[in-house]
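User: My advisor asked me to double-check a structure prediction for PleD family two-component response regulator before group meeting. I don't want to rely on an old file, so could you generate it fresh from this sequence?
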Amino acid sequence: MPFLGVSGMQYSGASLAGSRILLVEDSNLFTSMISAKLKELLDIDVESCRNFDELQLAYDKSSEPIKLAISNMNLPGAEKGEALTYLLDLSIPTIAFTGTFLEGTRDELIAKDVVDYILKDNVFAVDMLAESICRFLTNHRHHVLIVDDSATARALLSSRLKRYNFRVSVAESGAKALELLKSNPDIGLMVTDYNMPDMDGFDLTRRIRATTGSHELRIIGVSSSNNRLLSARFLKAGGNDFILRPFIDEEFYCRVNQNLDTLSQIQLARRVTESA
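Assistant: Sure, here is a fresh prediction for PleD family two-component response regulator from the sequence you gave:
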């Protein structure tokens, strides 16, 4: 099932058909467009609900788990976002698909821990939604390692990445990170803090790069420091990216996606070259 997203995401793995996807949308136009696009690109048949009552009925009538929901924020009988709240209260991963984006809406959505939000304000909205769905359904292929001596920071990053359906491991030190990388060769991305007591992010990256190239492992450095030269030092140590705290959720997820997309493209190119 080859798929090329609008941001450059490529997927050619197993079919995604069979995943139960719920579309909660009252617009006939968008319901038709989304259903057709997901069938065409991902071979997914969505289950549509036009109002809050139909949503509740869809949940109650079947014991089959809902893999992902796409929900409009304003529905007949649920004009204040009740459908979105209902889905999230049931711990159903949900993408908000909305034409309403007033001041504070973005913060409200992030606080609710939605998987993503897509605005209906451009011609690529449905394509962007399809890519967001494909990413969520395939992110479990990616194993991400978080390295930070702060338990709070580890928990925050871990919860963010798990929300996006990644497999996550955590390490409280550079030494533990090296152990996990050795025992988990499928880890494709490491997000590491700069300032750690046993070895800083620079030393950890240098040690990894002595044996492991960017075609096997992407490394993103993070720091709360105001020293903007840290990014240059980290990149020179072998890192692939650098982000200053505090993060903006959308930027963090974008950087993670870009690095994993690059890794996938490099590995695909190497396989093609080796088989030629």
